[in-house]
Amino acid sequence: MKDSLGKFINDNRDAFDSQAAPGDAWNKIEAALPKSQKHIFWNSVSVWRTAAIILFGLSAYLLTAKNYSRPNKQEIAEIQGFNDLENYYSSQINEKMDMVHRYQSSTGLTEDEITQNLKKLEAMYLVLKGEMKRRPSQDVRDALVLNLLVRIDLINQQLNRLDKPNVTTEKKVQS
User: Which residues have CB under 8 Å from 111's CB, separation 6+?
Assistant: First the structure.
């Protein structure tokens, strides 16, 4: 079918090319089109582009202004208070972890579930600390302090577990 149409067009090409549109054809087509309305200002593409550029620029400014604003005195005081707490609890954690590591190395024990949980808590602590630097708040500060307290509690549990075998062996030696 396609070949027969192509053959017909090729055979009658001269007849197709000789036809010319009447002179008033374009006037009739234009008259049949709907009348154009007045150009409305809000329908202009350039107005919407300009509005989008202004909105984008304003959003970018507000985001950067918020992220680079200086902390107020209360936030500085909170951060300093937190730094004092962090130093105290960190020193406690480091001392107790040294005791655990010394005991584990002297007895040949390997890491256990509590030590693995401590590593996970330390990773969470680093994430929270990054959040505290970006956006300091009382909630983040409380979460950091809670993390430190939980880590100290886990280390105390570890030390108690490690001391229990020593207590039972000391009782056996005394008996």
Answer: 104
